[in-house]
Amino acid sequence: MTFRQFAYRNVVRNSRIYGAFFMASFFSVAVFFIYSMLMFHPDIERGILGEMSLIGMVGAEIVLVLFTLFFLYYSMSAFLEARSHEFAILLHLGMEKRQMNKLVFLETMIIGTGSIIVGIVFGFSFSKFFFMIVREILHLEDLPLYISWEPFLLTIGVFTSAFFVISFISVYFTRERKLRDLIKGSDYLNSLTTYSKIRAFYGISLIVTTYILAFVVGHTSLIGLTLLIPFSATFGTYYFFSDSVPCFLDLARGKRKYHWQRYRLLSLAEQTHIMMDNVKMFFVVTMVSTLAFLSVGVLATMSSYTTQYDRLNPLGLVYKGDVDNPYEREHINSLRLQLEEKGLSYQLSRFIVVKQTSSFTRNEVEVFRESDMNVLLSSYSYPLLNLEAGEAVFIPYSEDSLKKLKDRVVHTVLEENNIPLTIDSVYPKIVFPGSIVSVNSIVISDEDFAKLIHPISDQDIIQPSYHLFTFVIPQWMETKDIGKDIDHLESNLYFIKKDKFSPFYFENAGLNYSYILATYSLFTLVGVLVATVFLLAAGSFIYFKLHTSLEREKRKFDVLKRMGLTDTELKKLVNRHLFPQFFLPWGVAMMHSAFAFLMVQGILRDIANISIVKEVFFAFGFFVLIQVVYFYLIRWRYISHIRS
Amino acid sequence: MPILQIKDVTKVYEGKVTHRALNQLSFDVEEGEFLAVMGPSGSGKTTLLNIISTIDEPTSGEIILDGMNPHKLNATELAYFRRRQLGFVFQDFNLLHMLTVEENIVLPLTLDQQPLEVMEERLASIVEKLDLTSFLHKRPNEISGGQAQRTAIGRALIHNPSLILADEPTGNLDSNSSRDVLELLTKVNQDKQTTIVMVTHDPIAASYCDRVLFIKDGEFFNEIYRDDRRQMFFQRILNVLSLLGGGQVGDLSTIRLP
């Protein structure tokens, strides 16, 4: 038997031990490969998604590689730890340290090569499926499968060097221990760290501070405080696991009445021990899961924003200008010409909007004419308005305003022209995007509108009245290139001439949508990748940790069984053993992300006025489901190991 | 009335190599007796102990403990039986390292859901008897081997079991601690009339018992009872052991003619 054969047989016959490690690396390779396939896709390179997406994907791949390195290193050292007894025998028989390093190196490379091959085969066979999903998410027409050497070469290159590096690092960084201790087996617990009450207090208070900060930022505009949040969250979480939790457990153990009961005696002691032993792991898992939750939450938000975009922006093009806007005729003609050239059907409505002062609020109000409004409404084929003199209707500016204004009845007088009005309803649909219409907009009857002779009395108002042109375009997504010259002129006026008040304002929903879609695509591609790998890793950390302590646990349960532990009690004890390990870091991560989303929701309410509660709730529910399934899977394996 | 009866117990381990660990072994243990089981390595001592402690089943034959055959119980009843009727002392103590000494001792009672008052009362009496006060709140890795074994004895006694099974209790201890532990076991045996079955290699440990049973290759070999002087008893144990050694030691050696 040569040395290489020995290494080979070690791996093949230790398949149970190495199975998990193999699975972890194989999965990383597969994910990496699929993403490389997407990254090198000829269509993507030609820029369907724009430069940003490509840069983002490269960034994500780098993050993925770094994380995979860390993850593989962690699992590798866990397995070396689990096999320390075996190594001790080899060293005892006279193996040199150099030979042992070679052995570990060979074994890692065997597993590495195996997982690279299987990972690539698996990745390649699933890439078409993945492309189909990406195509659906990004609304692409076609994303065909292709064959090119680049993704293969990249994956093989990256992972071969990764395994190479890891096998060296993990050997050199394993704790140097005495042979005698190694042979005795990894009997640990020689370094029981203690907690400090002050740090325990810091842990809790930092986390509470973080939450309060998040809440404050969400409800006020103190965005600067956001910078503090990651720091306080990180330190708070660390202290929480290193000191606060042990402190609580110790307090609980102090109460005999509570503590000396059935399984509590054992499980509390065990939890204390697990906590103190694995502070770093719990911390990493929590932070990693928080990141994963956040990226998925952001994705959900983006997707809700894109699907709601259509409804919130019913108009294809909007052109708003002063009454004496010199460009008006030219621009509107050019827009119509461009639309006709493209063969897009449209319905144009023009408005004259007059500002008046309302006696009810003492504020300005934008007044629309009923017949102008009805032209727009008929192009939407919405119900038309029919107003008598003295009647008026609110124009909703957002979903929220629909509800708010619904039952509001206001008696007011337009002061400049002394026109009494009763505003008793809100138009039930959103007709203008929020950016166009002011929060105080009403429609009045043509008779009343004709009486508006005197302009608004407040001299500081810049636009006492304005012209509004709206284009309703059924194929609004295709208007991306229309009116580029106007956009250009507008920004020129703003930036070059420093003209603060451009005589017109132009908005193109199709163009805006294309920007949003590109950002969304970027987040999807990056977020899905990061979330998958992080979640996988977070679960695996726990599994590997359990795996290394398996022998010890088995011995413990043997003693307990001898002392008369029934099978059901054993299962309950295992539950109590596994449950906190699985759900405590996830619970904390979920709390963190919940508060993060509370903050994001608060900020979004100001900017985009969309609700992400439903999306986030679904995403979280999905995670809980995955975690529960994972818990039962591990529990099943764990119990069967312990019973054997 | 014997508290434990072993009747024609045979244990065969099936597997790639079939191995007969016990062969038609029979003996009785009287209530309040302190019995040592001796035999060379591989003679089936541990198998015997495992069968008595019901974590292993005999291939044939039966065991009657306190008037009933525990191997006829189902798994849960068996666990309850072990929890209430048996106490264990192991060679490597098998204390749970994350519990303190005190918690290790009360563990059997917490599993059995005893009220707190009962636990504290029993703990107090055990602690006093075994002199554990000085290290009650330490962890198993902070105390000496002798202290650990005393803790383990405390754990085996706290639920007043009808039978204590000890597997090489002095195997990991120095001579002073061994003496302490053995004197303790003797005291427990005499004071509370607790029946103890101890498996051991050590003739000194065996000399503390009322009776020593020798087994060899899974079969009954010999038994001797204690008389007044421990020294004499020890000598007799040594004699039997030398016989047990395979017939060479103590026999006349063959004469070689020049």
Automatic annotation (TrEMBL), chain B:
<dbReference type="InterPro" id="IPR027417">
    <property type="entry name" value="P-loop_NTPase"/>
</dbReference>
<keyword id="KW-0067">ATP-binding</keyword>
<feature type="domain" description="ABC transporter">
    <location>
        <begin position="4"/>
        <end position="242"/>
    </location>
</feature>
<comment type="similarity">
    <text>Belongs to the ABC transporter superfamily.</text>
</comment>
<dbReference type="InterPro" id="IPR003439">
    <property type="entry name" value="ABC_transporter-like_ATP-bd"/>
</dbReference>
<dbReference type="GO" id="GO:0098796">
    <property type="term" value="C:membrane protein complex"/>
</dbReference>
<dbReference type="GO" id="GO:0022857">
    <property type="term" value="F:transmembrane transporter activity"/>
</dbReference>
<dbReference type="GO" id="GO:0016887">
    <property type="term" value="F:ATP hydrolysis activity"/>
</dbReference>
<keyword id="KW-0813">Transport</keyword>
<keyword id="KW-0547">Nucleotide-binding</keyword>
<dbReference type="InterPro" id="IPR003593">
    <property type="entry name" value="AAA+_ATPase"/>
</dbReference>
<dbReference type="GO" id="GO:0005524">
    <property type="term" value="F:ATP binding"/>
</dbReference>
<protein>
    <submittedName>
        <fullName>ABC transporter ATP-binding protein</fullName>
        <ecNumber>3.6.3.-</ecNumber>
    </submittedName>
</protein>
<dbReference type="Pfam" id="PF00005">
    <property type="entry name" value="ABC_tran"/>
</dbReference>
<keyword id="KW-0378">Hydrolase</keyword>
<dbReference type="InterPro" id="IPR017911">
    <property type="entry name" value="MacB-like_ATP-bd"/>
</dbReference>
